[in-house]
Amino acid sequence: MTRRRARCRIRSRPAAYPWYPVRLFPPALLLLVAGAFVPAGNAEPAPAIDVTTPLPVPEWARLQRRLLAEQVSACREFYGKYFDARGHLQCFVRWGANDGPDDAFENFNGWPELHALGADDEIMRLYVRGHEGLLRQYTEARTVETPIAREGMYHREFIVQSDWMHHGEGLQLFNRMGLSLGAEPRHVTRARRFAGFYLGEDPEAPNYDPRLRLIRSLQNGSRGPMLRPATALDWVGDPFDVAQFVALHGEKTYAQFLAHYQEYTDVAGDHFLNLVATTLPLTAYLVTGEPKYRDWIVGYLDAWLDRMARNGGIVPSHVDHRDGRIGGPGNRWWGGAYGWGFSPLNPVNGRRENRNRIPRAMVGFVNATLVTGDTKYADAWRAMRDAINAQARTVDGRREYPTMHGADGWYGWQDRPWNIGALELWYLSMRHDDLARVERAGWRAFLEGSDPDYPATALRRDLDTLARRTAAMRADATPPERRLADNMLDYNPATIGALTQLMQGGLVPGREGGLLQARLRYFDPERKRAGVPPDVAALVSSLSAEETVVTLVNTSATAARTVLVQGGAYGEHRFESVRFDGRSVTLGARTFTVHLPPGTGAKLTLALRRYAAAPTLVHPWERP
After folding, report:
1. Model pTM?
2. Among 319, 490, 528, 537, which is most buried by a count of CB atoms within 10 Å?
């Protein structure tokens, strides 16, 4: 067959599209709520490229489409086994940090991202139904002995009180639903309400002190902050017969549950874990565009940057809620449960374990960068890394680096430099010195051109993971009354690691509850939904501060497809030009469309300006 020379045409399509497909939601879900965002009728103009180059379907493209397809039936089976028609999780419902409400919602981890990549609409129908069901289920669930949840574990559709390690884990579903829901009215209403719990707008939830620019306690939520010492009961929940269940943290008795949390008392005051809370105002900003949400994020992060500057460059884990003093009266900047000096006794093995949750704080620095494009947040994290590694010591000729700090100074020594957040830091900065701190293997090696087999290898690995999880789910014979909310987490079929990296040039969202970070996102302009259209595969093969290289392929031999490409997960990056078939064509937009006739494909080198536009979750066809 004679290979035809590729051609590229640019045109502008300012077409208006209707609201998000009504068929995906019950009518009540689409009722406009007073004060919710109402989309404009005209879309942003999007330049368009026509591809005519025949391209044999690469192996990675076939594997990618297979992985997107096979997860749908597995997720359907998972939902049918563990949820009922109301969307309620079929388990023994408890309050507690080990197996409580956050774990129930975590059973949908990865589902919103999977749909937003291009999986079938059934995925979204299931997780929307499950989310609504879980909100009702845990609002109705009550404790007997644990004080905070006696009137319901959820209040106003939000957990009544918890720490931001568990808040973040339980909010993964809500936080990422907007990738496909966009500015759906009920989602907007919740985003406003949840953000209000932390902006000082809600008298029922006085979590935030605007004068001191701090969240008043590690334990906070829809019923406000805990300003007294926490008890083990607050963390564990009501007594139950542990022997009837499989407790994944290893406890065999309720007494061991209590012993696990005996030292988790120090919760009053702000804590670096609360930086994860910035995701709620960020979500509200992404669906409304209202500056107050962005301003709060910037103000809160800047307060933390000021504390870091006054604390030797290191973010403290305790700030006094009464006067904003770092470390309180005793200057214990390392204090607080889950803080720099937190090494409680594990009653299961009898050993003290270091439980510094500083990696979760990175979420706040990422969020502030997204809404400002300012490098100072990445610079502050890098400076903290250097300040910690400057405390290294030499023992018997070996260099050791600390990970913890307590009353007696630095401890938790390891033989490698402290390097938490290295991948995220490079992703924010795109600096070569930050990339040097990232492991030279896997995805990084592929992006640098030294592991061309990585896409197929990674996709096969995730297909194997999907098969193992599905087999384990089918083998699970535990009756509902003996399941805890976290028992099914390892059976969840959603497997998005390779797809996120390869399709979007993105970072896989973690359990900490942060949002998706991606260089590219895709939409189907014909079906008016997020994700690549049927048959389309995408491979991001190079990332730099100024360029992104992506190959788009239509694997169908009979159907033409059109895909809309967006700069960034939220349109925060602006495309300047595209190089294609030896040409350089000006784009000047944050989206463009590519028309792919059957059996065609193209490698596009995209010049772009990062963080050049206000981020948004409003779908491209609904933007003013």
Report:
1. 0.92
2. 319
